[in-house]
Amino acid sequence: MRVELAPQPQNPIPDLSVQYSPEIVRASGAFAMAPYQYSKLPLRLFEACRIATAVINGCTVCMNWRAQRDLRILGYDGGVIDQGNAPDEAMYQAVLGGDLGSLTEKERLAVRYSQKMGTDPRGLAEDDAFWAQVKSVMTDAEIVDLTHCTAAWMAMGRVAHVLGVDGVCSIGGPLAEAA
């Protein structure tokens, strides 16, 4: 970690609020969990966009995270994990590798939307042709939902990676197992 933190063997993801800015860290934690609790997006689309955002952020824990498995580890049930079939590991690996070929048109456009939001928000806002494509497959409610989910993933994934929390998280996965 890039900041000092007392050991927390009981926490799979270290809790910075124990020592630092408890009010703001807890509020950011609530922001991070809100997409999992309240998003109405289908789980597979949600996870494809989240993984694509994790790649942009460079967050190892985010790339290893699997909502269906890991939310339960943290004591959460319901929410987005009950909205459609869980993606298989092949989908995660394909998106991690930049291959969107196995995704539906709607999933591909949603992933591209999240990627553009993470790398070129000004370009995204000005790309009328892309907006027309997105709006042809997504409702305004889905677009607003995805935008807020992506904002949470971008913010918290970057916090985790920049401070090194992703390097000491005990939530494992395919990337951790391959290392």
Describe the structure.
- This protein has 179 residues and is mainly alpha-helical.
- It has helices at residues 22-38, 43-57, 60-64, 67-73, 89-96, 105-119, 121-126, 128-137, 140-163, 165-168, 174-178.
- The radius of gyration is 16 Å and the shape is globular.
- It starts with 21 loop residues before the first helix and ends with a helix.
Structure at a glance:
By secondary structure, this protein is mainly alpha-helical. It contains 11 helices and no strands.
Feature tags:
179 residues, mainly alpha, 11 helices
SSE blueprint:
Layout: H1 22-38, H2 43-57, H3 60-64, H4 67-73, H5 89-96, H6 105-119, H7 121-126, H8 128-137, H9 140-163, H10 165-168, H11 174-178
Q: Low-confidence parts lasting 5 or more residues at pLDDT below 50?
A: 175-179
Please state the overall shape, judged from the principal axes of the Cα atoms.
Answer: globular
Question: End-to-end distance, in Å?
Answer: 18 Å
Class derived from helix and strand content:
mainly alpha
Give the biggest beta sheet. none
Rg (C-alpha, Å):
16 Å
Helix content: 55-70%
Count of β-strands: 0
Count the DSSP helices. Answer: 11
Which sequence of SSEs, written as H and E, runs from N to C? HHHHHHHHHHH
Percent in strands: under 5%
Average pLDDT over all residues: 91
